[in-house]
Automatic annotation (TrEMBL):
Protein known as: 3-dehydroquinate synthase
Positions contributing to Zn(2+) binding: E186, H249, H266
Broad class of the protein's primary localization: cytoplasm
Catalyses which reaction(s): 7-phospho-2-dehydro-3-deoxy-D-arabino-heptonate = 3-dehydroquinate + phosphate
Main enzyme class: lyase
Organism whose genome encodes this protein: Granulicella cerasi
Lineage summary: Bacteria, Pseudomonadati, Acidobacteriota, Terriglobia, Terriglobales
Keyword check for Amino-acid biosynthesis: yes
Amino acid sequence: MSTAIEVRTPSANYTVHIGPGLLADLAQRIAALHTTPKAKLFVVTSPVIWSHWSERFLASFGGTQPVVLQVLAGEQYKRFSTLESLAEQLAEHGADRDSILIAFGGGVLGDMTGFLAAIYMRGIRYVQVPTTALAQIDSSVGGKTGANLAAGKNLIGSFHHPLAVFADIDTLSTLPENELRAGLQESVKAGIIRDRELFDYMEAHTAAILAGNHEALTRVIADSVQMKVNVVAEDEFETGVRMLLNLGHTLGHAIEAATRYEQLLHGEAIAWGMIAATSIAQKRGMVTSAQVERITNLVRAYGPLKPFTADVHELVSLTAKDKKNRSDSRRFILPVGIGDATVVRDVTEAELTVATEELFAQMPTREDLAEANA
Ligand SMILES: NC(=O)c1ccc[n+]([C@@H]2O[C@H](COP(=O)([O-])OP(=O)(O)OC[C@H]3O[C@@H](n4cnc5c(N)ncnc54)[C@H](O)[C@@H]3O)[C@@H](O)[C@H]2O)c1
Ligand SMILES: O=C(O)C(=O)C[C@@H](O)[C@H](O)[C@H](O)COP(=O)(O)O
Ligand SMILES: [Zn+2]
């Protein structure tokens, strides 16, 4: 049995399906989404995912197999050069305006395929088939697409929604544990900003969730998606409440850019960002010390918080490039207790510097981590 969550925005209506076994009739599910039976299908995926899941993926397509395009996944490859190569391949294979792309992979592939769909021939359709916890929990939903620049994270992109999302939780069985943990940080975020029950559930069921228990994992994914869908329905283009989905991301994105997208996974970087935001909120009296302890413990439970090397001043200056900032102010998301958050416009460089220095003060060494794992 799968769960269906409806996305309703001014520019798009579609369904997010979450559950086991969705790959089994994927071709029929995609065919039911459109009225162009001769439309060419293109799967954008990566060698690792394809090696695990190609057989199951292709089984339902019968005689009309999609064209398979493979690129390397991972944050370092979320670049214009990858998009250009994919666009050239689409053109070589005769993709036209009726063609449909299928993003089969994690958030990197999903964001890039969505962006490719937004710009190829000025816009074609695509479907999200996310295969990481992060992509099922967050990135496949809501229409943000894009790629990184050396100067900053997701600095190019567009809003372009998929025709549907099929999150087959079976695919998570081959996901490495560190990727599962990093993805679940987006659910920790969801709990902190807007869903106290989800936060409580993640506290109480950590072991089952991390062990990949289907019921526990489906609940966490579905609740996170529902929270995001509600926010996106209210503010599709991030002019207000959608900025809350960026808790931990201002500093998290700065960490990713400063470390050239090589040292931490996205979820690992935003875990640090959430710790810093919570510390700033505590100093402003927006969270109690008991709430700080609960938030920190939950982030750590889905961690560990991983060490990284970067310069505090570079990190703080990179936050100035955040897309939420406007000519009149910097914007920063802070938790208000647990289950609520707010956008503040007066976080100072001094506050950011102190919070960033605190991260380095509590950072484990690689030896600490090895010892903890032994
Ligand atoms: N658009 C949005 O709203 C949004 C939201 C959150 C995050 N993001 C973006 O998502 C990206 C992170 O996504 P991610 O964490 O999925 O990373 P990812 O796409 O790099 O995937 C992580 C790794 O897991 C491998 N993998 C994927 N599925 C697998 C499977 N089932 N079995 C085994 N290996 C598998 C991939 O090959 C890759 O090496 C970041 O770029 C972030 O900015 C976007
Ligand atoms: O969907 C959103 O809105 C989010 O902010 C979700 C984030 O988890 C995600 O990482 C997103 O890609 C960040 O967007 P950006 O606009 O800050 O690049
Ligand atoms: Zn994110």
